[in-house]
């Protein structure tokens, strides 16, 4: 079953001059796939990911996630969709520094408001336990190490049971030990929970170990 | 609906975390708003208070409209009547030696009393006199009144400091003098003084009371006698009246009614608006100044809020991008920053009202003596709730405007450019 279908994707940048970043790109991802996207910098792999994540709405073509078309939707609909169905992990951990680790993880769930806060807190604690950072739960996010922050960010991405977990070089800013840790985690999520994952990386080692690798150059799949 | 409430709660909780992280700047912005509102409440209360006080005294002492006789040069000489078609010049034309009385004044008073617009009317005789005691001689006016009528107009009873008005009609040659005049003559109730009229007639009179209106001009030179007494001083018949004073049910009708009566009876006349032009125009000017100062103060406070929010948004660009990535819409982000603006605004405005009230209260209890134009023993301050409501609304309005622009900017932050680094 295809959970994500992209057809005829075209994306232009206009600054400093008109430049075609994605060129008639087609892509499908099946439920439960652990997919990596690789390519040189400037190849358009991150651009593709931001389109698929629904944050970038300025594109031509069609993106269909779980039966819903993303093209032409307004900001609040997309925000809501993102909140419910897409978990995102960035290269630079990107936690809210003034909030506690626990609150950071709970935030997308609080926004969704599908569960009462107590239940959500329990779920967040379970996720932190899964990622082995439960003892940091009440610390302020800014006090954690980079590896710890990235694991917390993954917990945050998972709090709403997303259809797809997307990552923009989630290990790009980590040392080899933490990279290994995070990769094992992704593996575990894929194997045990059949979590669909779409990870942009330029780490060949990482890509080799995923179910499927999509290589992008000059805005096309090659 | 429930979703909207949780959205608001969530936005508020994020706003509070932001503000407590920037507590110092938040407090400074709040103080800015509070200061603006404090000064507004205090200034407007003080200015309005003194205006109300002055106007109350002034208007109590001034009838809505008055009719009198004026010395006029006749605009036509007798020669003009005889030779109307040529240019006639008369040098050193003198006013006619006329009585200052109103023609048929008593009849006019009776007719005006029947007018349904009129609340009370009083006919009186006024004349210039010299008050004398030993070597001291002070000029002033004496007003011959019918006490009941004049009391209904000017509330004289309440102005009495010592003695009373009640014997005015029964005791011959008795007067009630203004407090300033009594002080200058160094007399009190029960004393006797000499009075000289313009024509040179001398009378010995007894003081049966002292009044104080608060209007320095009146208290320093005026006295009241009965109509009969003053008519006897002037040696005129009992039909002699020089002034008719009228209070209407609706003071706004006074100018038109004054004109009509003047034309009807061929008297000169005036109304309270004409008599108090300076006071009324001064009040308008003071209000204008108060509001301009307020606009400037709130503009400064608004800049404070604008500043802190703009700074906050630049610092929190990354946070805004994250919030959008995890599913916060543009509206949610705007709500977070508007909440901060409103919290600053509401706390600031409330504190401002409180401090404004306290300062106003302190000022109103402070002794302050003045005898310039109006007698004061403390500063009059208005505590009209309207000004407090106005101050609060001004504060909220300013914060809303000052908060809106940065909030909109925050909502427009493009998460991708920031997240890509």
Characterise the protein shown here.
The complex is a heterodimer of chains A (222) and B (421). Chain A is an alpha/beta fold and 222 residues long. Chain A has one domain (31-59, 74-221): P-loop containing nucleotide triphosphate hydrolases (Rossmann fold, 3-Layer(aba) Sandwich), CATH 3.40.50.300. Chain A contains 7 helices and 10 strands. Chain A has helices at residues 45-52, 75-85, 101-112, 117-130, 146-158, 176-193, 204-208; strands at 2-13, 19-30, 34-38, 60-65, 68-69, 86-89, 164-168, 196-200, 212-217, 220-221. Chain A has a 6-stranded mixed beta sheet. Chain A has a 4-stranded antiparallel beta sheet with strand order 2-1-4-5, with helices on one face. The two termini of chain A are 23 Å apart. Chain B has 15 helices and 12 strands. In chain B, the strands form 2 sheets. A 6-stranded mixed beta barrel of chain B has the order 2-3-8-5-7-6, surrounded by 4 helices. Chain B has a two-stranded antiparallel ribbon with strand order 11-12. With 421 residues, chain B is of the alpha+beta class. The longest helix of chain B has 39 residues, at 23-61. Chain B has helices at 2-21, 23-61, 78-82, 105-114, 147-154, 179-185, 216-219, 227-234, 254-265, 272-275, 277-315, 317-325, 330-365, 385-411, 415-419; strands spanning 65-68, 118-133, 136-145, 160-163, 174-178, 192-197, 202-211, 222-226, 243-248, 268-271, 367-370, 376-378. Chains A and B meet through helix 2 and helix 3 of A and helix 1, helix 12, helix 13 and helix 15 of B.
Give the topology string of chain B: H per helix, E per strand: HHEHHEEHEEHEEHEHEHEHHHHEEHH
Number of domains of chain B: 2
If you average the pLDDT of chain B, what whole number results?
Answer: 85
Structural class of chain A: alpha/beta
* Beta-strand segment tally of chain B: 12
Strand order of the largest sheet of chain B: 2-3-8-5-7-6
Task: Note the main sheet of chain A.
Answer: 6 strands, mixed
Sequence of strands across the biggest β-sheet of chain A: 6-7-8-3-9-10
Count of DSSP H/I helices of chain B:
15
Tell me the strand percentage band of chain B. Answer: 15-25%
Ends apart, CA distance between termini of chain B: 37 Å
Q: What structural category characterises the helix and strand content of chain B?
A: alpha+beta
Number of helices of chain A: 7
């Amino acid at each position: 079953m295809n959970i994500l279908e992209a057809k005829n994707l075209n994306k232009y940048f206009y600054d400093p001059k008109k430049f075609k970043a994605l060129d008639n790109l087609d892509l499908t991802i099946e439920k439960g796939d652990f997919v990596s996207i690789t390519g040189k910098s400037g190849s358009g792999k991150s651009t593709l990911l931001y389109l698929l994540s629904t944050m970038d709405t300025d594109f031509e073509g069609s993106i269909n996630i779980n039966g819903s078309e993303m093209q032409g939707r307004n900001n609040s609909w997309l925000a809501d969709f993102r909140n419910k169905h897409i978990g995102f992990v960035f290269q630079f951990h990107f936690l809210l520094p003034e909030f506690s680790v626990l609150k950071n993880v709970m935030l997308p769930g609080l926004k969704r408001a599908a569960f009462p806060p107590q239940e959500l807190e329990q779920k967040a604690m379970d996720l932190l336990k899964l990622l082995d950072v439960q003892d940091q739960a009440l610390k302020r996010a800014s006090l954690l190490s980079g590896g710890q922050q990235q694991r917390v960010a993954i917990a945050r991405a998972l709090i709403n049971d997303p259809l797809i977990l997307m990552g923009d070089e989630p290990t790009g800013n980590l040392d080899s030990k933490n990279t290994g840790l995070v990769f094992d985690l992704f593996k575990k999520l894929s194997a045990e929970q059949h979590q669909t994952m779409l990870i942009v990386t330029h780490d060949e080692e990482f890509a080799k170990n995923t179910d499927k690798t999509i290589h992008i150059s000059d805005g096309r799949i090659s | 609906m429930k979703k909207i409430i949780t959205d608001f709660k969530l936005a508020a909780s994020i706003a509070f975390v932001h503000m407590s992280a920037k507590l110092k700047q938040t407090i400074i912005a709040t103080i800015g708003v509070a200061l603006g509102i404090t000064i507004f409440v205090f200034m407007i209360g003080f200015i309005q208070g003194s205006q109300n006080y002055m106007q109350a005294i002034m208007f109590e002492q001034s009838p809505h409209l008055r009719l009198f006789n004026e010395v006029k040069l006749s605009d036509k000489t007798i020669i003009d009547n005889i030779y109307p078609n040529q240019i006639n010049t008369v040098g050193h034309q003198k006013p006619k030696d006329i009585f200052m009385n109103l023609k048929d004044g008593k009849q006019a008073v009776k007719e005006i009393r029947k007018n349904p617009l009129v609340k009370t009317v009083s006919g009186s005789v006024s004349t210039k006199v010299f008050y004398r005691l030993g070597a001291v001689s002070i000029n002033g006016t004496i007003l011959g009144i019918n006490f009941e009528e004049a009391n209904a107009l000017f509330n004289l009873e309440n102005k009495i400091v010592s003695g009373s008005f009640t014997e005015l009609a029964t005791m011959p040659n008795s007067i009630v003098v203004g407090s300033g005049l009594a002080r200058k003559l160094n007399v009190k109730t029960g004393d006797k003084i000499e009075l000289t009229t313009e024509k040179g007639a001398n009378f010995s009179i007894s003081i049966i009371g002292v009044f104080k209106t608060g209007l320095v001009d009146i208290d320093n030179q005026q006295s009241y006698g009965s109509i009969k007494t003053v008519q006897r001083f002037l040696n005129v018949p009992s039909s002699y009246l020089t002034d008719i004073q009228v209070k209407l049910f609706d003071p706004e009708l006074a100018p038109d009614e004054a004109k009509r009566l003047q034309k009807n009876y061929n008297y000169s006349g005036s109304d309270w608006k004409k008599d108090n032009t300076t006071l009324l125009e001064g009040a308008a000017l003071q209000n204008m100044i108060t509001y301009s100062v307020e606009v400037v103060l709130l503009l400064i406070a608004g800049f404070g809020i604008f500043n802190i929010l703009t700074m906050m948004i630049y610092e929190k660009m990354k946070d805004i991008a994250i919030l959008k990535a995890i599913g916060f819409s543009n509206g949610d982000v705007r709500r977070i920053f508007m909440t901060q603006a409103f919290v600053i605004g509401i706390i600031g405005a409330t504190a401002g009202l409180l401090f404004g009230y306290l300062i106003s209260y302190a000022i109103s209890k402070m002794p302050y003596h003045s005898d310039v134009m109006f007698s004061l023993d403390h500063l009059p301050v208005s505590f009209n709730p309207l000004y407090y409501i106005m101050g609060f609304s001004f504060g909220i309005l300013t914060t809303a405007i000052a908060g809106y622009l940065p909030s909109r900017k925050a909502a427009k932050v493009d998460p991708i450019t920031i997240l890509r680094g």
